[in-house]
């Protein structure tokens, strides 16, 4: 019951954020929309900041779930890294374009959720590091500096998955450009450039 209530609170908060934006949504508004007291909301989230962080975490978890599955899958590391990059790009693109109200709310919340954002970035780094390590272990990649190779992947693809940069494209499909960049990255990893 408590997990179901927590989810109801998060869903109601997201709905209010879409409608009103983060500056106009208070805990009391969330509670009122659910027909409960604001004290009940505080049983699940000890502050407005905690509730907002949970919204950002939820948004980012929807991004990382399919990526975690790719990392855990079997198969050549290069194919999985390619799929991982393309999935990250398309997931972020869909989040920005398919739910613009929530994306605007997310932009308003992320500034106060630096720890959540840092954790998300660390998780992305760990996933890329694992994929490259898998490629090194099988001889698919010849990498001298694992950390530099990991940074290369994220730095070279950021144009295609950073939410603010995705929003700047106005919805343009950058898949062909991303494919070129990812092929170059995979060539560098296989060729021992890094």
TrEMBL record:
| Keyword Transcription regulation among record annotations | yes
Q: Which Pfam families match?
A: TetR_C_27 (PF17935), TetR_N (PF00440)
What's in the keyword line of the UniProt record? DNA-binding, Transcription, Transcription regulation
SUPFAM superfamilies the UniProt entry points to: Homeodomain-like (SSF46689), Tetracyclin repressor-like, C-terminal domain (SSF48498)
GO MF annotation, one: DNA-binding transcription factor activity
What the entry lists under InterPro entries is as follows: Homeodomain-like_sf, HTH-type_TetR-like_transc_reg, HTH_TetR, Tet_transcr_reg_TetR-rel_C_sf, TetR_C_27
Q: Would you tell me the protein name for this molecule? A: TetR family transcriptional regulator
